[in-house]
Amino acid sequence: MPSTWTVNATMTDSLPPPLPLPLPPFPLSPLSPLSPPLPEAPVLLVTGGSRGIGAATVRLAARQGWDVAINYLHRQAEAERLADEVRALGRRAMTVAADVGDESQVLAMFEAVDRGLGRLGGLVNNAGVVDVNGRLDEMDGARLRRMVTVNLLGSLYCAREAVHRMSTRHGGAGGSIVNLSSVAARLGSPGTYVDYAASKAAIDTLSVGLAREVAAEGVRVNAVRPGIIDTEIHASGGQPDRAARVAASLPMQRVGTADEVAQAIVWLLGSAASYTSGAILDVSGAR
Ligand SMILES: NC(=O)c1ccc[n+]([C@@H]2O[C@H](COP(=O)([O-])OP(=O)(O)OC[C@H]3O[C@@H](n4cnc5c(N)ncnc54)[C@H](OP(=O)(O)O)[C@@H]3O)[C@@H](O)[C@H]2O)c1
């Protein structure tokens, strides 16, 4: 994949040489008569892309010109259906099963994306888990290990592999990483899940630190901190009715949608956010 825009020779005869644009390249829309031909689409990997916020991100990113690799853990059928939706939009798609908390599976996933779609330009570290409400002094070691392994180690493994591919230090051509944090990171979630909150606070720190580490290497890193969003994650925490139950108590008197979070993620991924790095963006309806 070319690292910069290339312009058809017949169009450039009377024009100065094309300037490299900020990376990764993105289609211009609408095209002006002098616009260069569309470049190959940038490639995005969304972890936990089979449903919820991840799936909304996949759909929106595809509409905005990304080719997308959709990672999932169990829900293969949902991931495959979503890949078909992406292809129907004229973009390339692939699905890849991997547990992000397992380093060897993460390495295999990135290699599969390299082979399947080519040079990575974006990563959304979205895969995450909660567990049932409780106090820390009631939580067993297996739960705590799972929380840290999936939510934190998974994001660290994936961010590292993305930097290996995107950073100019490693011969890459730049890119953008968006990590999914949570307002729990600043609220702490006492009595419900301080383990989850702590894992998400670490995501905030990862985002700020890594952004500074790779800022001069063409890689931007940001985090999105959703509030209460209507997805299946609440059911997996034993509260399928959580969104409906708490809606009236929230500042906007409603929960958010996965699409509303995806809008922020996809903006941060793209060239419209070219000077935004190390940011933590609350998408929480003022919560
Ligand atoms: N919803 C909210 O209110 C909310 C609020 C703040 C932050 N967030 C964060 O936003 C992110 C997405 O949340 P969501 O509500 O969309 O969650 P969700 O509906 O429960 O979906 C979770 C996704 O992550 C995948 N996943 C789970 N464990 C995985 C693992 N070990 N390896 C790979 N993939 C895995 C699932 O795959 P399968 O479909 O194959 O199981 C699914 O695609 C999470 O990081 C979450 O912490 C959510």
From TrEMBL:
Keywords in alphabetical order: Oxidoreductase
InterPro entries membership: NAD(P)-bd_dom_sf, Sc_DH/Rdtase_CS, SDR_fam
Top-rank taxon, per record: Bacteria
CDD domains associated with the record: SDR_c
Annotated family: Belongs to the short-chain dehydrogenases/reductases (SDR) family.
Name of the featured protein: Glucose-1-dehydrogenase
Organism whose genome encodes this protein: Sphaerotilus microaerophilus
